[in-house]
Amino acid sequence: MIRTFWWLRQVILLLAGCFFLAFGIHILIAAYRLTDPFSFVMAFFASNLIILISATLILGFVLRMIKVYRIMKEDGVRGA
Length: 80
What we know:
Elements: H1 2-31, H2 37-79
Helix pairs in contact: 1-2
């Protein structure tokens, strides 16, 4: 039961990271439509920060899920 909630939480966090990654890409694309140079620079760097943070979180969640899956698989083999 606890494992199910852990996996569900990880999937929800992964989906949230994907949402923010897509949001950052959307802001990056929209930044190129701006005519004011200051607004462009601010939107460009903000979108890159959002993309980098969300990509790092996604990578961390995926690596954590792989690690736990391997541990569970290893424990299953030992228990059999």
